[in-house]
Structure formats: structure tokens, C-alpha cells
């Protein structure tokens, strides 16, 4: 089939649901539009759920169970998708991140996931569990996906990674003093790699700081660009150049305004000494 997107059921609960929905549809020989007509929605909606770009709502799964005669199986699986700690849109971003030639990061408040130590990441998720924001199972899901993303950086050839951290990232204490010391050590080791650049955007940038929210920009092997940003509820992957290009321009401006890598590492080294 032309333009049929391959599905990876291990990417997320939403991807597993989408693969099952597609398999049930294929077994009956229905097109997406034919299934949509039976369920009372659009073929575009079916496509978005099958590819994990949209989570299955209770109404959607109830209708699918009725059409396929699967009892409440799809509703129970859909509940697992909705209870996932992985934001909508994030699995689609990760699929692009693991094959990007260049990764540009800007983060506020916490160290970016790709640069976190296991103990630092565990402290962040433990805090979320204690607040009741996520369950322990969801915390494990986040940590497992983060480990997979970090492992992907070791591919050959390695992607070029540019990271600009707001000063709040390195000054905010997370976990015990030992956890924070190890995390700052991790940043120092990251900065020494031949395929990385690490900079700190100091507080005194003020209004000259280009971003008020975290952003990730990817350059793919074909030199096309995508951008990813998220709110508390949802992540969004943007491919259209007219939206991505201004973000790239702003990122380059931020790099120019931020401390050099040498000055950034001097600031981090000062904090390392203070956290010991």
C-alpha cells in the first residue's frame, strides 16, 4: 500500500493500540474510510489513532469494540493508553530523534532528559509520583523510554548535539547533594565529547533570552528540520518550514547570547565545588 506507515508497537501504548486497530481492520479488508463510516468518525481520525498521533477516547474505543465485536478489549487497552505518562505527540518525536543528524536543545528548570544521570531522572520521576502527578508504573515507563533515547546517542555516526541550558537548570537542586554532584559531572563529561556543544544561558540575559518554553530542534539526514515543543498536557511535532525556520533563527540568536562553552563550564565547575 502506498504511503503506509510502519508501526512500532514498542514505541508507546498508543502505538500498540494503533497496531491492533490496524490489524483488526486489515483482517476484515476494510479501508480506513470504511471503518470510519461504521464507527461514525472520519478516515483521518482513524489514521491518527492507528499511527499513535491521537489517543483513543472512551467514545472511540467503545465504538471500535462494537464494530469489531471485541467486547471491552479495546476499551481496556485504550484506558492504558490514556493512563500513559508519555505525552501525545512525544512517541512521534522520539521516532525522529533517534535518527536525527543534529539535535538542538533548550531547557528550563531541569537538565534535559538526554543529559540526565539515572539517579537525577529517578529523583524527578519520584517527585512526580509523590505529588500524585503520575503513578509508579508511569514513572517506570518514563525512565525506560529515557534510557532508550540516551542509548540512541551512541549510534554511529553520532548525532551532533547542541544544548543550551537556562541557568535555572544547573542551580536547581534535584535529589541529594550526591545526585546533583554526579549530574554536574555528567554535564562536564558531555561537554568534552567531540560531537557536543554545551552552553548556559545566564539569568542576566533577561528579555534577550529567545525562548520562554523548552524546545527541541532536529536536523534529519536529508537536512530537513522538525521542531518539538510541549505543554503540560500535550506535545507537538512541527514539520512545516515556515514554522520551524523562525525557531531555528531564534536558537542561533540564543547561542550567540549565551555563555561560551568555556565560560559555561567554569560556572558549572564552580557549582560542582559547592555541591560537594
Structural class comes to alpha/beta
Major pleated sheet: 6 strands, mixed
* C-alpha geometry: elongated
Would you identify the CATH H-level superfamily of the largest domain? Endonuclease Chain A
| Helix content percent band | 40-55%
Widest sheet: strand order?
A: 3-2-1-4-5-6
Strand content: 5-15%
CATH architecture of the largest domain: 2-Layer Sandwich
* Unreliable segments of 5+ consecutive residues: none
SSE order: HHHHHHEHHEHHEEEEHH
Rg, nearest Å: 21 Å
What's the CATH topology name of the largest domain?
A: Endonuclease, Chain A
Total domain units: 2
Distance between the termini: 59 Å
Pfam family, one: DUF5753
Protein name: Helix-turn-helix transcriptional regulator
InterPro entries: Cro/C1-type_HTH, DUF5753, Lambda_DNA-bd_dom_sf
Organism: Streptomyces endophytica
